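Write out the 3D structure for:
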Amino acid sequence: MSESAAHQITIEQQVVDKVYARLEVMREQAKELKSEGHRRATSGPVAGLVERDAMVLRAAAKLSDLDRQEEGIVFGRLDFDDGDTYRIGRLGVRDEDREPLVVDWRAPAAAPFYRATPGEPLGVERRRIIMCEGPRVVGLDDDVLSEKDIDGVVGEGALLASLNRARGEHMRDIVTTIQREQDEAIRAPAHGVTLITGGPGTGKTQVALHRAAYLLYTDRGKFADGRVLVVGPSTVFTEYIGRVLPGLGEDSVHLRAVGELFEGVVATRRDPAEVAKSKGDLKMVRMLTELAWDTPPSAPDHLRALDADDLAKARVEIRKRCEAQGIKPNGARPVAAKVLSEMLDGKEIPEAFLNAWWPPLTPQDVLPAQHGEWSVDDIPLLDELAEILGKPSSVNPRVPEWQLRELRSGARLAETFVMSWSLNDGWQLFAPGLPTPIAVSGQSIDNNGYWAAQRWAAAIILREGHKVTSWIDGFDPYGEEGYVPVLAEPLPVAVAEEPVEDAYLHVILDEAQDLSPMECRMIARRAAHASMTIVGDLGQATHPLAARSWPELVRRLGKREARALDLPTGYRVPQIIADFAARALAPEIEPTRSFRPGGALEIRQVDDLAEAVAQETGTVIAPDHLAASLNAVPVSQVKGLEYDRVVLVEPADIVAAEPRGMNRLYVALTRAVAELVILHTKPLPENLQR
């Protein structure tokens, strides 16, 4: 290190030391304020203290998170032609006189750090990158944007230094190296729809995440507390990017994969292309609607004088009346009771029968998982069913109190035991929630021996852990008269939590080019009242029903128009790899211009694939059907991820596996940021042979 560089590092170290000393003071103040809040909350009125204490806790947590960052809090400096100098960092810090020590990277005053160029310097003479490991300054890089002679210039270019770092297991933030077009996208207005497009390595994902942090900075009151949703293509992807926002001091953003958007289900497996095409088609809406109104498999098939055909006709009439009034299936119980009553000359319909014949349904009831596992392509179907089914209606208040307690349906779920007579099976005992009996007496107890039958049933119920004190009249699930036990202790009532309505005010979609029409409907429901940021690359669209254009996708999401911002320059994929991968692009897709020189590309035809893979180092990417045997990453799971060295196996199989196989191959070819090795036994796709 030259003497001049060492001197400049000493200058910056003095400033960084002052910042960390100030942070210590702020931390102690935060602790004192927190303690004071607790003391005052227990000794007097609490009005106003809740908000104050929450702010203190958030500040302390934010400082703690940022102190742990490897790169440190201070990362930049701006020298202006009017003599002012600003330090730029991951959060704003002021001294005891309220003068700025560090300007938050999202603040307007920091914008020239990312936007100044030699042609348009914005008053900046020097832009300095300060590289820190925690509180220690370890290096500097200067960009001179003025024609004046600037003293103490050091470094060889911060951007390339950053790009040449090895990849870790998780994505890093890019606050030190955001480029002008990226900054314009990050700071675009929050309202409406912002469309950010760009090829592999252009920083689309980082821009999307930094945009989330920027929105929270500019309007925290609006967007904090989970009002920003970021949607990624897979759980592998969300795990990869999961540390960026906490590293920027933001932990209130909801980060979800498409397979996690339906509450209570996490899906990671993708269906084959043809199955995904069927499930992603809008025709599914009509099919799911039919399923939602269909008779549940466990429903009883008779009610007194009504047989199965009568009940089927009743369902048709119920649906007709409900659809005319805008009533959804789970809200149709009162209509069902009315229609059945009319068919029985005004007789009241037993609640026990309605519980079994028109039960409240969940999407999982209507569409069970195949082979016990949901796929990502099932998630929009479950979400659509939740919309179609609606919420359960409340119980008729005229029902006797004991039935309200024991046979309640809807948000509060509870049923009871009931005993009734069957001509074929003798006395039968039904358990809570079951449409079929758990025990039958046979003909050993006749129809008139209800005292003996009650003793028989009470013994069975006791084995279930409940003591019977007496019996009252009731109805079994089929509407037949019977006896209901009064229990020493009431059955536990499961209180179902009311679903929380989505209240997102900004939704960010990463890899949006791959959304099917059904996935778009699912996201549109969450973004109905939200502004949006849509991020993607049509060249990487692999879903068989992916939109052919951005305006088409915007319409699918229920929006009219978008402001479009393009990121034309790639910063991660080396030029030699980017040029080769561009051969897989459709003619109408403009290739990305790579900023990064160097890189290595090797293509080898081999006889034994497994043996050749075993001799390689790096991340192996293979067609899905070969991934397990080669201990490789399935090609369907690599979108959005980056690796230093990639060994790509059998490109011809990747292309042949699905309708948009060339797009999938393009994704795979652009995962390497240093070296790409292609191993194949079959001839390469024609485009790659040019």
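The chain has a mean pLDDT of 84.
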